[in-house]
Design brief:
Neuraminidase; coiled coil; single chain; four-stranded antiparallel β-sheet; signal; Extracellular solute-binding protein; alpha+beta; 28% helix; six-stranded mixed β-sheet; 17 helices; D-Maltodextrin-Binding Protein, domain 2
């Protein structure tokens, strides 16, 4: 019964693309947090066998055939500050023009006037980028008039227009940019220093280099169900376009990373997690070359190397892919992606280790339950929210492959908390791997509680006590006018909606626990809802309508969050106290958690590979996830920069100690004081900044997490259910009608299930 009635909280997640390194030339060249790379890629270009990437801090290069990317030691060009403000250059685009590599940088200044700071774009500078051996150099070619390429973000603050997929053709720089209401094709004449093209095109995805002085446009119209994608040629001289072909989409996916090779009349593009090659603009000729892990949206156009490899990149990853479809990997693993970084990282590490396997992270638009009923083997691994009807149906009908034969998975799942094991196991068999746990709860600010003189022992433990607490708040808040009960943007409707849903979810879980017949028509539920209805929200400072445009506050100014993440309480910087509440005094509190899991398709033809991939995922789960799901995993997590900060202090202290040994008497006193200050600062840093997740915060989390239960599907059509909730909260129906309607639908559902 619990499986039928527990609560729906979540949504099925979507897409992204991915691949292994099997074919000659294939390589992951850049990946954030790999080999020390932690920047964002802004632009990419290719010249004379070398691929160049531009980041905010520098340029990276890689020669054809190499797998090692070099960060050029020569930083980007810079300019000196001026008195009363600062001047700086911001990297905008890297592109090949006239057989040279060019770098475009916007010149901006910040200055203070009447105690306000202003930012202006003063122009742009164009540089020639040269590389001799492994040494990079810059030669300034020109300063450019950039007035037409500026956006006003706010009054007194402007920045240079952001360029997407820039490329040079016939002395002009073309790119895509978002303008007033749509993407626009932009063209800037580098010699004449003027904007010569700006045309907004509804549905324009991107513009690329084509042939014969023409541009290639990718236009998308998802309202056209049959062929929402149009590829068009565009003449920048006349503004005329011509249809080249129409294509069907992969779900709501459109071609990304588009490159046209005029030598072979081939269009390369990424869609549905795969790299495709289309000859002669004929969609029927399109063939998949292989899978790729790359975000389909990117600010960088791909490049084709001299040895016919494609280099693709998004803001954090750069891949090189062989364009010969005959070099594809032997095996193909299709994984439904839930936008979880752990899964993406597993795809990279697994692909690097298993070059015979290509992995496609795909957007699943079909009815997954219907796929199971049809015994489809198309998808090997599904990523699902436990609270969805899809997971519940697959769980109940046994459409989940057992995972027990993996010792690594078995050991991990057996170490998880009982609340998680209830959904990870089915009839004693392991059927799912936890990927992302969380829980939503009411929290109270510790500093605010201290201001109000409320101790932890005085906090409410059940819903009745919580309503007593809220009713007693107004006079306390009057004594602290800087304090707000909740964030001021919260309206009365939003306050009631959040509390009502939290109360209802807890009540349904308790009902589904089998202690009494399933019904909302009870004295307890009516009493608690009545307490919520009778709250004086104006006295709590909660407005009927939102009136504020902005609000600033310090720690201790906001008393309560109604829907905070329990996982955030793990972090040492967090100052919120979770407030698990029981339905009635004397009962255990209830914290409703959500869980995303990975499961294997029982009809998969790659079950052994799928199992090995899940082992990879388990091995890459971060410390935060392990602490949340495994009660015995209590390893504190050091802050990311603690080790380097400690090293800085130790080196500074050692340096001052060495100076003291060789100092005169006059110098020694000052150096001793400096040494004492450094030692004191070091100890304060260790005390204050050592832990991202401290032993104490883990202990506090354990006290709350013992009450966590995992939400399951409600069992009733969620759209219909939430319509009733919204009608009640909007005073369109009474609580009596709400209870009558919901109880009636549950009775009908139970009869159908029986």
């Amino acid at each position: 019964m619990k499986r039928i009635l527990a609560v729906l909280l979540g949504m099925i997640l979507g897409l992204v693309p991915i691949a292994a390194t099997a074919a000659p030339g294939d390589a992951t060249l850049l990946r954030r947090d790999m080999d020390g790379f932690n920047e964002s890629i802004q632009s990419m270009a290719y010249l004379d066998g070398i691929t160049y990437w531009l980041t905010y801090n520098g340029i990276y290069t890689c020669k054809d055939g190499d797998t090692q990317v070099k960060k050029q030691e020569e930083g980007l060009p810079s300019i000196e500050d001026e008195e009363g403000g600062s001047r700086y250059l911001e990297p905008m685009a890297l592109f090949e023009a006239e057989g040279q590599m060019r770098l475009l940088m916007a010149e901006s200044s910040s200055y203070e006037e009447d105690e306000d700071w202003y930012t202006e774009v003063e122009g742009a500078r164009l540089y020639r980028v040269a590389i001799e051996g492994d040494v990079l150099s810059f030669e300034e070619l020109d300063t450019l008039d950039w007035d037409e390429m500026v956006e006003d973000v706010d009054e007194g603050y402007e920045h240079a227009l952001r360029m997407q997929k820039p490329f040079s053709m016939d002395g002009r720089l073309y790119f895509t940019a978002y303008r007033n209401s749509a993407n626009a094709i932009m063209g800037y004449d580098l010699e004449e220093q003027e904007l010569i093209l700006e045309e907004e095109i509804p549905g324009l995805e991107s513009a690329y280099r084509y042939r014969d002085g023409l541009l290639l446009l990718v236009n998308v119209d998802f309202e056209n169900a049959e062929c929402p994608i149009r590829l068009e040629s565009y003449d920048p001289e006349t503004g005329e376009s011509e249809l080249l072909c129409e294509m069907a989409s992969s779900g709501y996916d459109a071609p990304g990373h588009v490159l046209y090779d005029p030598e072979t009349d081939t269009l390369y593009y990424v869609m549905g997690g795969e790299l495709w090659a289309m000859r002669g603009m004929d969609p029927e000729s399109a063939k998949s070359i292989g899978a790729v892990l790359i975000d389909n949206w990117s600010e960088c156009a791909p490049v084709l190397t001299d040895d016919k490899c494609l280099v693709l990149c998004d803001h954090q990853t750069a891949l090189r892919r062989n364009t010969d479809p005959q070099t594809r990997a032997e095996h193909r693993l299709v994984v439904q992606n839930g936008y979880r970084e752990t899964v993406q990282n597993a795809c990279f590490s697994f692909g690097n280790r298993r070059g015979d396997v290509e992995i496609v992270l795909a957007n699943i638009n079909e009815d997954i339950l219907q796929m199971m009923m049809n015994r489809s083997s198309e998808v090997d691994i599904f990523c699902l929210e436990v609270s969805t009807p899809t997971f519940e149906a697959m769980y109940q009908r046994g459409y989940l492959a057992p995972l027990d034969e993996s010792e690594a998975i078995a050991q991990f799942v057996q170490s998880t908390a009982p609340a998680y094991q209830q959904v990870l196991l089915r009839e004693g068999e392991i059927v799912a791997v936890p990927l992302f746990p969380d829980a939503s709860c009411i929290t109270l600010n510790k500093a605010a509680l201290e201001k109000l003189g409320i101790s932890e022992q005085e906090l409410p433990a059940c819903w009745e006590e919580f309503f007593d607490f809220l009713e007693a708040l107004p006079p306390m808040l009057e004594e602290h006018p800087e304090m707000k009960a909740v964030i001021p943007f919260t309206t009365q409707q939003e306050f009631r909606w959040t509390l009502f849903n939290t109360l209802l979810a807890s009540y349904l879980y308790r009902q589904a626990d089998g202690k009494e017949a399933v019904s909302l028509d009870t004295e307890l539920f009516r009493r608690l809802v009545g307490r919520l209805e009778n709250l004086d929200l104006e006295a709590l400072g909660i407005a009927e309508e939102q009136t504020l445009n902005s609000f600033s506050y310090e720690d201790g100014d906001l008393l309560m969050q109604l829907n905070a993440s329990l996982s955030e309480s793990l972090y040492t910087w967090n100052s919120e106290k979770p407030l698990p509440l029981a339905l009635e005094a004397g009962e255990e509190p209830i914290l409703l958690g959500q869980l995303t899991v990975l499961v294997v398709n029982p009809y998969s033809e790659n079950r052994e590979i799928a199992l090995e991939f899940l082992e990879e995922v388990v091995g890459l789960l971060d410390e935060i996830t392990r602490i949340q799901v495994c009660p015995e995993y209590n390893e504190p997590v050091e802050a990311a920069y603690f080790a380097s900060n400690l090293e800085y202090y130790d080196e500074s202290i050692a340096g001052v100690e060495e100076q003291i040994e060789n100092a005169s008497e006059e110098e020694r006193a000052d150096l001793e004081r400096t040494l004492q200050d450094l030692r004191r600062s070091r100890e304060e840093m260790i005390e204050r900044d050592r832990w991202e997740i401290s032993p104490e915060s883990i202990q506090a989390y354990r006290r709350d997490a013992q009450y966590l239960v995992v939400s399951r599907y409600l069992g009733m059509d969620e759209g219909e259910f939430y319509t009733l909730i919204n009608q009640y909260l909007a005073d369109e129906i009474s609580i009596d009608t709400f209870i009558q309607e919901v109880d009636g639908k549950w009775r009908m559902m139970m009869l159908e299930n029986s």
